[in-house]
Design brief:
The structure is a single chain. The protein has eight helices and twelve strands. The protein is of the alpha+beta class and 318 residues long. Among the domains are: 113 residues, Immunoglobulin-like; 106 residues, no CATH class. α7 runs antiparallel to α8. Strands 1, 3, 5, 6, 7 and 8 form a six-stranded antiparallel β-sheet that branches. The chain has a three-stranded mixed β-sheet with strand order 2-12-9, with no helix packed on it. The protein has a three-stranded antiparallel β-sheet with strand order 4-10-11, with no helix packed on it.
Length: 318
């Protein structure tokens, strides 16, 4: 009797923990070629993440350009390897250091968004890198720096400068003579003033033009989302004066969170950037509804952030 009860509880426990076992499909990692380099030398850092796109969505970690005395000099593209239901993303980076000493590569944090459940994070391990200076042999005698040596030159060393100067003088003389001989009194042409587009009008026009190109319908989702995000970057710069053209999606969202006019629209932009990053970097195929939603979210953001013009009250005559 006791054995049956024990077996029953084991089966029940396995059923209850099935979700936890399933979540182990997501994992991240990082490794480095060399744990010791000379000042100014470079070493390769490999970052990878694995998840099941059928059950969750993965947000790539933010990789800063500098950290703990080290610098990233080159970021490779994110490669995708699919095996069964699992997709592995890999990225190669070149890092260097110009300050000697022991430095640390930090933990990189990834966010997992389950289809049903609470988002959670995964992080890589951190590890040290020793940056060494060039050894100096103190037993050798000190050698001073030699002075500047004068090199004799002749006019032939400047022949091409002389020829270029003569040709430039001739061209100036020919052009001047031509305009003097053909000088006419022209009536000034008054062109009608075209009203300048506001940032909202410009962004709306560009979004409508992009929508009419039907890029994602013609198997060009990457180009579609690249142009969509660039339109929003340009609009944010012109409308709010925030420089975001060279920032990543996560860095832009951080800037948005700090701006009191945009912070309430952060989730709207987050949805747009998430779909765009999948199409551009993770080589995922967003659904038609996600393509349409990205465009709709972009238009909503432009309309919602249109400046409100308040008319000044007129003074009534007494």
């Amino acid at each position: 009797m006791m054995a049956r009860i024990f077996t029953y509880y084991i089966l029940l426990l396995l059923l209850l923990t099935g979700t936890t076992i399933y979540a182990q499909e997501e994992k991240v990692g990082a490794r480095i070629d060399a744990a010791q380099i000379m000042v100014g030398d470079q070493t390769r850092l490999f970052v990878e993440a694995q998840h099941n796109p059928n059950t969750s969505k993965l947000q790539w970690a933010v990789l800063p350009d500098t950290f703990n005395g080290l610098e990233i000099v080159e970021k490779g593209k994110i490669d995708t390897v699919r095996k069964g239901n699992l997709v592995t993303y890999k990225q190669r980076l070149l890092i260097t250091g110009f300050d000697s000493g022991m430095h640390e590569v930090p933990r990189f944090i990834f966010t997992v968004l389950p289809g049903n459940g609470t988002p959670y994070t995964l992080q890589t391990d951190s590890f040290p890198i020793l940056v060494q200076t060039v050894a100096v042999d103190t037993t050798q005698a000190f050698k001073g720096i030699k002075g500047i040596m004068q090199v004799k030159s002749t006019w032939l060393d400047y022949i091409w400068y002389i020829i270029g100067g003569v040709i430039l003088i001739i061209l100036i003389a020919v052009v001047t003579t031509y305009f003097i001989r053909n000088k006419k009194t022209a009536m000034p042409v008054i062109l009608p003033q075209v009203p300048k587009e506001t940032p909202n009008e410009k962004a709306t026009r560009l979004l409508n033009e992009l929508e009419q190109q039907k890029l994602w319908e013609n198997n060009q989702p990457k180009e579609y989302h690249t142009q969509l995000v660039d339109i929003l970057r340009s609009y944010i710069e012109e409308r709010f004066g925030v420089n975001v053209m060279e920032l990543t999606s996560d860095e832009i969202l951080h800037k948005v969170a700090l701006n009191k006019e945009m912070t309430s629209h952060r989730m709207l932009l987050s949805n747009i950037f998430y779909i765009a990053d999948l199409a551009k970097f993770a080589k995922a195929q967003p659904t038609p509804q996600e393509h349409l939603s990205a465009m709709e979210y972009a238009k909503q953001f432009v309309v919602a952030t249109k400046p409100v013009i308040v008319a000044e009250p007129q003074n009534s005559a007494v």
